[in-house]
Design a protein that fits this description.
Blueprint (H helix, E strand, L loop, with lengths): L8 E6 L2 E11 L4 E11 L6 H4 L3 E3 L6 E4 L4 E2 L2 H8 L9 H22 L2
Antiparallel strand pairs: 1-2, 1-6, 2-3, 3-4, 3-5
Length: 117
């Protein structure tokens, strides 16, 4: 059973990267969350927030995901706000949007491969 609710911020962690997402809906029958990616934080080493702030990819205009609820962890507001404040104002630049989509695709591929081992 999921304790997540729409509009909640959650995170998918894989190795030294964390994908922060907003929950759009929870599909309890399938144990899945429909989420909207917000940002990908690349940590140099785990728990180095100062360095991570400089390594944030803006994914706000990429595709939504449907992923297993069990893979997400809840995010405290203080953690999210630290990174959210570092996002630049979004520009509708096709190259930036394409780069963001590729970044998300690579993260999901890596996550899938890492979890299938």
């Amino acid at each position: 059973m999921s304790f997540f609710k729409p509009s909640e911020i959650v995170c998918l962690d894989n190795q030294n990267r964390s994908l922060y997402c907003e929950i759009i809906d929870v599909i309890t029958q399938q144990n899945k969350c429909w989420v909207r990616p917000l940002m990908l934080v690349n940590f140099i080493q785990q728990d180095q927030y100062e360095k991570a702030v400089k390594n944030i990819d803006d994914l706000r205009h990429t595709s939504d995901l449907l992923w297993s609820t069990n893979c997400f962890r809840p995010v405290f507001d203080t953690e999210y706000i630290t990174f959210c404040g570092q996002l630049p104002e979004f520009e509708f630049d096709d190259k930036k949007i394409l780069t963001a989509k590729k970044t998300l695709r690579h993260f999901i591929q890596d996550l899938w491969l890492f979890n299938s081992k």
